[in-house]
Automatic annotation (TrEMBL):
InterPro entries hit by this protein: LRR_dom_sf, LRR_R13L1-DRL21
Identification of the protein by name: Disease resistance protein RGA3
R13L1/DRL21-like LRR repeat region domain location: 2-105
Region (Disordered) location: 147-167
Gene3D superfamilies: Ribonuclease Inhibitor
Regions crossing the membrane: none
SUPFAM superfamilies: RNI-like (SSF52047)
Organism of origin: Forsythia ovata
């Protein structure tokens, strides 16, 4: 199922999003949300998909905050695409997440601890099942600030001629 979000900033849009009742549509396994402008957070919260969602795509999201349901109710999520968004949600505590594709993050300079989704003493393991973490066309990226077991900072990512980032 693909949903294109456009011009949803009125109170009636919140009601419409709630009436869509995506969270009760258990047949949805993949959800592609495409944005053309900033969307009110109450509309975003009302677009909560069902908890058994396996794949989620955010394209063009310009909000600084993401809806709570991304990390609080999508416990089976395995695949995420974040394309041309202005920020990233804390995905590290999604225990079944296997693949993350991040692309066209034009202003992203680094990934910080907030991306890991770890709070408190940091003893939780971020991304316990992650197999693929793919970055593409992140032109301003200079450093990856994820904690290292030896305490050393990781090397900056290398970008090949196609714009793909790897180590």
């Amino acid at each position: 199922m693909e949903i294109i979000i456009d011009n949803l900033n009125a109170e009636s849009d919140v009601i419409e999003a709630r009436n869509a009742a995506l969270k009760n549509k258990n047949g949805i396994r993949s959800l592609d949300l495409q944005f053309r402008e900033e969307v009110r957070m109450d509309v975003m919260e009302a677009l909560q998909p069902p908890p058994n969602l396996l794949e989620l795509s955010f394209v063009g999201y310009v909000g600084i905050e993401f809806p709570r349901w991304i990390t609080m109710s999508l416990n089976n999520l395995k695949f995420v695409i974040m394309d041309n968004c202005s920020s990233l949600p804390p995905l590290g505590n999604l225990e079944f997440l296997e693949e993350i594709y991040i692309s066209s993050m034009k202003n992203m300079k680094y990934l910080g601890r907030e991306f890991l989704g770890i709070t408190g003493d940091g003893s939780a393991i971020a991304f316990p099942k992650l197999k693929i973490l793919h970055f593409e066309t992140c032109e301003e990226w200079t450093d990856l600030l994820l904690p290292q077991s030896e305490g050393a900072a990781p090397p900056p990512p290398k970008q090949d001629a196609t714009g793909e980032v790897g180590y």
